[in-house]
Amino acid sequence: MRWIGAFLLLPLVLAPQTKPDEQCSLSGQVSNAATGEPVRRALVYLRRIDMQPGVTNIQVSQTGTTDAAGRFAIAGLAPGKYRLSAERSGFLTTQYGSRGPAKAGILLTLEPGQKASELLMRLTPHGVIAGRVLDEEGEPVSGVNVQVLRQQYTQGRKQMSRTNGASTNDLGEYRVFGLVPGRYYVGADIRRNPMLPQAEDEYVTTFFPRTTDAAAAASVDVAPGAQVRNIDIALAKMHSVTVRGRVVSEVRPPAGAENARRANLNVMLSARNTTGAGSAMTFSTPVTPQGTFEFRSVTPGSYFVVGAVNTTGKTLTARAPIQVGGSNIEGISLTIRDGVPVTGRVRVESETTENIARVRLTLQPAEGGGMMFGPTPTQLVKPDGSFLLEDVGPDRYILSVNGLPDGFYVKSVRSANLDVLAGGLEIAAGSPAPLDVMLSPNAGQVTGSVIDPKSQKAAAAVTVVLVPQEKERRDREAFYQTATTDQSGRFTFKSVVPGEYRVFAWEEAEYGAWMDPDFLMPLQSRGEAVSIAEGGRHVVQVNLILADPQ
Fold first, then answer.
1. Which of residues 61, 96, 125 is at a domain's end?
2. Mean pLDDT, range 276-291, rounded to an integer
3. SS3 80
4. What is d(CA 504, CA 545) in angstroms, rounded to the nearest whole number?
5. pLDDT tens track for 154-172
6. What is the average pLDDT value for the chain, to the nearest integer?
7. Does residue 38 contact residue 66 with C-beta atoms inside 8 Å?
8. Which of 186, 199, 354, 444 is buried deepest, with most CB atoms within 10 A?
9. Inside any domain, residue 132
10. In this structure, are 14 and 77 located in the same domain?
């Protein structure tokens, strides 16, 4: 059994003391979602999510184990809000009230002295994909990296994302387990020895059954508990090229460590998108004492060549985009320079007693899906509101502000006369003008309920999304909010930035799909429109968009 972290076994003395007549208990049963049979020896555990003031912020949890009939009981609980989960080897972890594995459940609110019983939880057996990897003559290939991928939304675009993987054994066999029901793609990547001579055609990343183009890969549907076998991949050969260049570090090494700059240099080749051949694959190569590098067996596609140097515990990078076709690429030049400091101050528009020293500022690349090569510039705000982000490399960044007190939002971010909140902060050779980050304590709030149009009853444990309508905000995830309805079908969005929105509720929707215009456009009229002014409070009722409207 895969046990959760040791923090679950923390002594209960960390919890607030509860009078005996106020203690709560709960009981129920865990069953197999596919067969309905009871699941014995399942681990059931609670996580407290509303710790009382003055109590340590460690999540105090209590656990239980199901008996032969799949039943469990946990007593001696303090009143409060909890999430109840169950797990067992061979099954997918689930939360109480969820509509399926890997979906959010509902909160359990225990009132003083309450005894909640007959709580039912259904564990879904995990899925398995298995097969072999063969060469062009049908012989098994060992040591091949097999990846199981899904199409998932990133910044409103569907991209291949790795969910699990395995390596082939001496018989060329692989077995990938722990899969949530759904549609997958399987790719095999054979890592060749860079010291061997390069052939004109070489084995490259190949997707099931035998294609080098991820867009042409055959999908594999995995049902709950299914073991999908014979997903055999015949490795394909493809014309590949060599990419060569030179990397130079102008980063000042610490005193007495002049040679460390060269020793710590490395270069990576990373796909610019995750939909083409070689998706989700990143390769590295040695750097010679002269700073030259060479990537062999590179297949056509769009890539970033990234140089990195680690010095005094920090990593600085430089990158260059390249488009690989049918010919070798020569003369790539990367120069890694010291980063520059980015300074500024956080201010609050009006008087407040809230402590803004918990606010954290982070710079994330505006392009490349937010991919960061090297450490992410991040810093807590000082008590006086000032901040300093050190060693920020050249790029265009979006400033992310986290840890805001309830009811606050970022009203503006300016660098000199430039508004960089929506457009991003461009950093080139030197430090930008100090940032002025203005916070407002007058954010809006949207509360409401979701109704199932078929039953006309409240819809619990469904996804609700607050979608901005302004064009300049539609591709910024920070302006979206998501929530899961409680057992009464209710939801709340706090700290809403003033603006125009629509509220949608889905029974089934891939996370992030609402940022894709093609997905959202046919459903536009199904959302409830809300206009949020500063300090505005709105109550809406939303009809659930059913997965199967029949």
1. 125
2. 70
3. strand
4. 8
5. 766 777 788 899 999 999 9
6. 84
7. yes
8. 186
9. yes
10. yes
Residues 526 and 491 in one domain: yes
Q: What token pair was written down for 169? A: 């054994």
The Cα 235–Cα 212 span in angstroms is 9
Pairing of strands 127-134, 233-234: parallel
User: Residues 39, 67: contact at Cβ < 8 Å?
Assistant: no
Q: Which amino acid is at 367?
A: E
Neighbours of 389 (CB within 10 A): 22
* 356 and 375 together in one domain: yes
Same domain, 97 and 204: no
Round to whole Å and give the CA distance between 250 and 235: 42
Least confident residue range of 240-249, 287-296, 373-382 = 373-382
Residue 318, φ and ψ in degrees, nearest 5: -145, 145
Last residue of a domain, one of 73, 95, 125: 125
Residue 514 is part of a domain; what is its CATH number?
2.60.40.10
Amino acid at 68: A
| Domain containing residue 419 | 340-440
Q: What is the pLDDT of residue 100?
A: 82
Whether residue 90 is contained in a domain is answered as yes
Beta-carbon contacts of residue 82 (< 8 Å; ≥ 6 apart): 46, 47, 48, 49, 107, 108, 110
- B/e letters for 330-353, b = 16+ CB within 10 Å, e = fewer, are eebebebbebbebebebebeeeee
- This prediction has a pTM of 0.75
The verdict on 263 and 325 lying in the same domain is yes
The answer on 388 and 324 residing in a single domain is no
- CB within 8 Å of 133: residues ≥ 6 apart: 140, 141, 144, 146, 168, 172, 174, 188, 190, 232, 233, 235
Q: Which of 192-196, 261-265, 393-397, 458-462 has the highest mean pLDDT?
A: 458-462
The neighbour count for residue 531, using CB atoms within 10 Å, is: 12
Please spell the DSSP secondary structure of 290-319, one letter per residue.
TSEEEEEEEPSEEEEEEEEEEETTEEEEEE
The CA-atom distances, in angstroms, between 404 and each of 182, 419, 420, 449 are: 36, 20, 19, 26
**Angstrom distance (rounded) from CA 355 to CA 348:** 11
Q: Are residues 434 and 352 in the same domain?
A: yes
One DSSP character per residue, 118-141 reads EEEEEEEEPEEEEEEEE-TTS-B-
Decide if 11 is inside a domain: yes
The pair of three-digit structure tokens given for residue 471, joined into one six-digit string:
């064009």
